[in-house]
Each structure stands twice: as C-alpha cells, then as structure tokens.
C-alpha cells in the first residue's frame, strides 16, 4: 500500500469518525449539553482564575526586550522552566515558543524544554486539587513536587544524552527579537488568544467525553463511574479529575489515581500545546516521550513522597 492509499484511508477514517460523532451528538443532545456545561463550569471555576493572571504576567515579561546578548545557557533554561512550568498548562508551550521566536532558545533545546516545562500550575494543584479535591494542602504540595522532580529528571537525562552526540547551542538566525512599544497590550492580546484556545478545547472535549462515556455505558455493562472517568480523563484532564472525585473519593488509591489523570493531561491539553508549538516549528517528539515518562514516574514518585 503506497502513500496515496494510506492518505485516502486516513481521510476516510477521519470522515467516518466525524460523522459518527455528529450523529452521536444529534442522538444525545441532552448529554452533550450537560457535558459542555460541566466543561464550561470547570473552566470558569478551576482554570480561568488560576491561569489567566499568570499568562498575562508571563507574556508581559517575555515582551520586554532583552538587551543582554550573551546569556549563559543555564540562565535561559532556568528562565524558561520557572516562567513556563509554574504557570500551568499551556503556559510552558507559550513561554518556550516566545523564547524561541525571540532567539533565546535553539530549536533542539526548545523541543526538550517544551517537554520539561509542561506542568500544572501551583495555584491549580495546591488551590484546586490540594484544597478542594484532596482536602489537604500538604498533599497538593507533594503532588506538585513529584511532577517537578519527574520533569527535571527527564530534562537532565535527555540533555546529557544529546550533549554526547552534539553541541546544541546554535540560536536560529531567522528569529530576531523586535522592540515592542507597548508590551502590556501585546501580552493582553496574546493571552486572550491562549485563553480562548483553552476554553474551546476544554468545553469540546468535556462534551465529547461525556457523550462517549454515556454511549459506552448504554451499549455495554460497564459502571458509569468507571466509563465516565476513563473517557473524560482521556479527553479532558480537569473533567476527569472531577469525575474521579465524584465516583472514587473513598478509595485508598484515590490520590494516586488523581496523579495518574493529571500526568496523562488529556487530549485537550495536548491539542493546545500542539497548536501553540506548531506556530514556531518546535519538534514534538521530546514532548511525547516526556508525557510517557510522566505517566510512569509521577505516580511512583508521588507514592513514595506521600
């Protein structure tokens, strides 16, 4: 089978999936509406208050011109990690993309930092997950520590292996930092674009996950709590966390389950990162490897810390 045949097959599968989902949404309008409402409420309650202020401040800082030309690599890496990984999804992708466009990061470095700076914000983990889900701020801090330990280990191991092969300190010459007259206004403009992207993906995938979980439960003898949590965790992390809380709060493994769901991130967040990173041509392979690493090691590290 040649490339043309593969392309046609892929196109046909896409069309079939889209029409299948359209029909499913038509057949279950109430369920789709309930899922969209739940996604919108979660976005407004759990994401927007924790995400928006930090995105604006991060973008504002990145828009201020840097007049120092020869900044050591470790300082550039530290800047990307602090601004990106502590801002929440998808601030890491926004930060790495902006620094790559400004000429502060090489393309190879940007791929690794895209994976390493991918972390939920401390306001979300401590404020929402720790306080409202776990009912314990200390447990939220421990989960946050596990996430950052896993990310830093991944970056250090990856960079050591890459430096054995080649030196990656060449900054792309095509990215030239320009002077921005009103950095705050530019930060507000770009932040609004990111927020709209986040809201769109969260609401859509929450609705999709709810419809699919309802369909699976109707067609098979599967517990609604299990099917809904699995479907929502795959598509939208925050909705998956909320579903797991509604159905599995009393289980002893509940904290580990939440750690797994947050490590998976969900298709919604992955789509946000892909759209943002694509604008700068950042390689995505390190990101996908980093996600597998996180799914494996974050729950393990969290278990030993807990």
Automatic annotation (TrEMBL):
Organism superkingdom: Bacteria
Keyword annotations of the record: Membrane, Transmembrane, Transmembrane helix
TM ranges: 6-27, 34-57, 77-99, 111-131, 143-163, 194-216, 253-276, 288-305
Protein name: Uncharacterized protein
Protein source organism: Sporosarcina limicola
